[in-house]
Amino acid sequence: MRRRLLILMLVMLLMIIIYFVSECQDNHCLVNVFPQHIRGNIFPEHLDGYHTPFTTDTLSQSPDIICSGTSLRTFAPANDSLISKAEWESLVTDLQWPFPPVDLLSPQEATNPTKCSFSVVNSSSSHTVGEFVDVILTARDSKNRPKTYGGDFFQAKLYNTELKASTYGAVTDHFNGTYTVRLALLWPGPAKVSIRLVHSSEAVQVLCRHREQEPDKVYFLGHFEEGVKQETAICNAQRSSRLLGDGTQCCCEYNEPVTGEEWFCQQPSSLPCHALTYHSMGGYQAALSQLETTLLQSKDIVLQGDESVIYVKPGNKTRSQTKCRPGLHTSVPSGFYLQDHWTSLVCDSKTFPSAQLVSGCLKNKQILMMGDSTLRQWFEYLENTVPTLKRLNLYTSSQSGPFEAVDLQSNTRIIWRAHGIPIRTSKTPKADLHYIAREVEDLAGGPHSVVVFTLWAHFTTYPLASYAHRLAIIRRAVSSLLQRSPSTLVIIKSANTGYKDVYGSDWLSWQLDLTLRTMFRDLPVVLIDVWQMTSCHYSPDNIHPPPVVIQNEVDLFLSFVCPE
């Protein structure tokens, strides 16, 4: 009898184990990992109100499991004194995203923007500037069936075409196929709601998985030269199977002596590793299935929904009276357009409509800009706006610089340079591609020194840990700069919208942007939030915003340089 009972207990235990494994496979082992005191909103304070999928008391994925079973700890920097285990786990938790609970069998099961709908709550009621309106959004698949889970990446705005007015709206995911949007009423007159599906939850899952599992889907070329000999080899920021090949030609390893940042190239057949002279973009090699390709093709489509016009009466002033200074909280919304002019809700921003005003603000300033082509647009705008600001001919790459412009009348010097590898650019001397941290480490700083950087567009293809490690190196350099020279102004330009594929999607950019904001939130630096400025503007979505948006971005930048 006792033996039969033991056998029965073992059988029951085996059935429980089988059931649990099955559930883990279907649901990716969802467990509740959020402490009670942070349920309701786990995002850092200055990120409140963005597309926040963690705003209700629900179960979520463990920090160990993300992107359908990919462990982010696999890619976490080993023995990294710059990122503690607690910080890394907190960061991964903050960036969790709800993925489909089951494997997709057909594109018909994915969220279809043409089937989704939204309605404005109390659109006909009387509204006043300074109030909010709420929108309810329902996601459906291609068969018009309501979705039962969340994870879709929507972007929302309130706008008025005639007034050239718009503002960004926060989207909240309720994990059951419904979403709500809260929109601030910031100008008097009529306004309408616009919502677009950037990526379905199924497409986001594809993006996340390939980000973590395929870091070399973009590859680069190293050009080796010694005397008359020349060779080209594949290079990248991480060792990978594609880079290693059969192992017979791997690898040349390059370590930046100050920052410790790494770069790898295949070993040339006849030249030494130190012969690496030039860097260039190689190509794209993402390995997408037909289903994944189809999912990523349906993107950035405006939803058909409530066409109600919201009439807003004049009311409270919406302009901030706070002086523009480092360390300010970035609100949502952080501002709004009216007649194509951006008014900040973060601080008392100003406009600089003339060359004289811009030049006056830049007087006696030494400005170092480091980043990608979206920050290069700032340099070019200033160069084109101020006639006395003249670019020197340094005979450098037209894409990656470095560039330098000086204004002898105002004693102004502005440098823009690309942020170091990895960077997708034409063939350029590797010696011209300096890491941001190395440049910052070499700065004395001071009250006339302004440091501006951005880092995101060329990192969308790499695992999150690689990007976080690069940010940690820059954070250490910035922290040291501010300790030795507290009067130095450090400004960070956020990511902007405009990417739409597996190599650079708005969702991927968004994840990097949140990482950057989180990792620099405790330093006295300035964040210029151009994500909202580009997301809600009426211009066609483009990684390089049009001149009117760039002017507003630069005006906000100058408001921190010259707050008085």
From TrEMBL:
Output the InterPro entries linked to this UniProt entry: Ig-like_fold, Ig_E-set, NXPE4_C, NXPH/NXPE
* Key word ATP-binding present: no
Q: Which GO terms describe its biological process?
A: nervous system development
- What range does the record give for the signal peptide? 1-24
Q: Where are the transmembrane segments?
A: none
Domain NXPE C-terminal, which positions? 342-562
Q: Which keywords has UniProt assigned to this entry?
A: Signal
Give the top-rank taxon of the lineage listed in the UniProt record for this protein.
Eukaryota
Tell me which family the UniProt entry assigns to this protein: Belongs to the NXPE family.
Q: What is this protein called?
A: NXPE C-terminal domain-containing protein
Species source reads: Esox lucius
